[in-house]
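I am writing to request your help with a piece of structural work I have in hand. The matter concerns a single protein, recorded as an amino acid sequence and a row of backbone structure tokens. Could you please explain, in whatever detail you think fit, how the structure tokens follow from the sequence? Thank you for your consideration; the sequence and its tokens are set out here:
>
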Amino acid sequence: MVDKRLVHLVDDDEAIRESAAFLLEIAGYEVQVHRSGVAFLDVMGEALGEAQACCVLLDIHMPGLSGLDVQLKLNERGFTWPVIILTGQADIGAAIQAMKNGAFEFLEKPYHNAGLLEALVGAFTKSERSMEENAKAGHARALIARLSKRERQVMQGLLAALPNKLIAYEYDLSIRTVEIYRAKVMDKLEARGLSAAVRIAITAGLEPLEERRA
């Protein structure tokens, strides 16, 4: 993970951009300023990665595209960065809608510097936790991808808490064959025990086996 957290500051008010950027840089953040929602989205592009922990400070009322419009476009593109909405008193309704659309927080202008910094701490905590969870899920999916079709089926049986005997029955295998596949599953998942293998499978999103009914 990079040392500096990145804040995208999107506001059409030059004075607010300058003062907020100064505050955030003093606080140790990397800051990229954007004078409009359109300019911000142009810089982002369709394929920008999310390797760096980021947060978006987004003014709700801007010409061209409103903050709400920008937020929806970020959602459509699959960005999961936390968004903090900056709003005036007249835009509270829109800010509440932004919260419903997934915004992390909204702050009324003029906001207190301490309140802004506190909101950013919470937003980055969420962002970094999400990045860690995504990394774990990606690693788990890569491990599951190592399994052959039959090994995956045995793992699904284990996820369903079935003993070897029932897994063998479900797939018309011998119990000894299931034991061999089970050992291979543990080896390929680099799991020291069943609980570790189950945790990996759940993290990867593998579905448990549905038993046949006699």
In short: Strands lie at 6-10, 30-34, 54-59, 83-87, 105-108. The chain has two domains: 6-136, 146-204. Residues 83 and 103 are 5 Å apart (CA to CA). The chain is about 55% helix and 10% strand.
